[in-house]
Design goal:
homodimer, 243 residues, alpha+beta, Jelly Rolls, 2 domains, DNA-binding
Chain lengths: 243, 243
Amino acid sequence: MLNLQSPLSRKLTAFVALSDADLATLARFDRRRKTFHSGHEMIHEGEVNASAYILSTGWACSYKILPDGDRQIVDFQIPGDFLGLRSILFRTADHTVEAITRIEASEVLEPDLLDAFANAPRLATAVLWAASRDEAMVVEHLVNLGRRSAEERMAHLLLELGARLHLVGLGDEAGFDCPLTQYHLADALGLSAVHVNRVLRRLREDGLVTFQKGRVIVDAPARLRDLAGFDTAYLDQTGPLLR
Amino acid sequence: MLNLQSPLSRKLTAFVALSDADLATLARFDRRRKTFHSGHEMIHEGEVNASAYILSTGWACSYKILPDGDRQIVDFQIPGDFLGLRSILFRTADHTVEAITRIEASEVLEPDLLDAFANAPRLATAVLWAASRDEAMVVEHLVNLGRRSAEERMAHLLLELGARLHLVGLGDEAGFDCPLTQYHLADALGLSAVHVNRVLRRLREDGLVTFQKGRVIVDAPARLRDLAGFDTAYLDQTGPLLR
DNA sequence: ATGCAGGACTGACGCAAAGCAGCCTGAGGC
DNA sequence: GCCTCAGGCTGCTTTGCGTCAGTCCTGCAT
C-alpha cells in the first residue's frame, strides 16, 4: 500500500498530480527514519555529500555563520518541511541546519533523489515547486530585514510561523506552541537578544501578541496582521499546476 | 543546428548533461525575442499568468513594494539570468521585475515551460538547480541585511555583481560598468539613498572601491573582500551533477 | 537661454537599536 | 542543601542610520 499520508507527498501533490509510480518512489524516501537530539547539527556548512531530510516531528533552523561569529538564521523548519536540498544539489552544503527540539526525520540520500528525478520526472517538477515556495519565504524574510521595523519584523515572523503550523495541522486560531528562545528570534530577525526582549514586551503590553513559556498567543490577530503588513499569498497552497 | 551558445543552455549544461532533444527544446525558448525600454515593468506583483524571460542584454531588478510604499530589491538580473520563474510556477507573480536599462530578452510562456518539463525531464532538474542557485544568492543577501554593517553590505553587493558579471564575460579584473543609481543600491541594501552616498564616499576615501559615473573600480580587491567577508562559494559553477 | 527634473552630494538633528552591565528565575547536577 | 547555567528581563549609554532640508551638476525640453 502506498503511503499517501506522508507529509512530503501531501505537500507535493498539492502542486503536481503524481502517478502511483511517482508516489511509490516517494514512499521509498520515508524508509530511512532517524532521530536527532536537540542541538544536534544535522548539516554543517561546508560539509560535502550531506543528506537531505524530511521533517516528521520537531523544529529545526538553518543558518549561516559569519567570520566574526555572528549568526543569521535563514528559516525555521517545522514538520512536513524539506531541508538540505541545496546541500545535495551543490554537493557541498552552503548552510548549517540544527535541531532545535528532538527531531524525527527521514533521510534522503543523494542517489535516491537523483534516481527519483531520472525515473519520475514529474517529481522533479514537484520538488522545483516546493523549492520555489521556500525561496518565496526567504524573499519575504529578506523584505522583513530590509524594510521593516523591529516590531513589524517580530509580528511578521510570529504570524508566518502560526500560518505555517496551521497548514500542517499544528496550533489553532488562538496560538501555537513554540520552542524558540529569544536568541533564535534575534538571530532570525537581525536583532540583539536584548532588543527582542523589549520588542516582545511592547507587543504584549499593546495587547497584540504574547510569547511566554513556550507558547505564542495572538491576542489581536487583525491588528497584528496590519502592523506586520502580513499577506499569506506567498504561503498559499494553490491547486495543481500540472495534471 | 542547435543553438549551443544561448546563455541559458550554457548555464544549465554546467550542471546537468542535456541530450540533443533537451537542447532542441531549450532552443525553442530563444525564439520569442522582445525588447523593453528602461523603466518598463516586465512583471507586476499580483499579475496572473505572467511570462518568464531569459535576459540577453541589459540589467533588471526584482523587488517587492510594502504597503507604506517602501521598496526592497531582492536581486539584480544581468545577461544570462532567468527571471520570473516563480511567477509561472505560482500562476500569480509574487514580485515585480523592472528593466533598469534597455533590455533584450527571450520570453518563456507557461505552456512552453511545462511542456519542456514533461518532455525533457532532465530540463526540470537543470532548472531546479538554476533556481537553487538563485535561492543561494537570496540567502546571501539575507545574511547581508541581517548581520552586516552598511559598508560591509555595500562591499559585498559590489563584489557579488563584479563576480557575476565576470562569469558571463562582462567587466574585468579592475572593475565593471554599472547602470545602478544610488537609489537602486539603497533599496537593495535596506539603506537610505543619503546613507548610500556617505558609505560610497567612505569606501572611496579608504581606497577600497570607487563607484562613479556608471563605473565601479575595485581599488583594493583583497581588502574589500576581507571587509565584506565575501566568499564566492555560493556563485561557483561546479561540474555537472547528473551525467 | 531658460527652466526643469533626476541624480549625486552634504550638514544638522533625532531616534531606534546595539552594547554593556547586571539581576532574577527555574531546572539540573552533585 | 547549594552551585551552575541557560534563558528571560531591565536601565543606562552610545552610535549608526534615517530624516529633513537643502546645494550643485548635467542633460533635456521648450
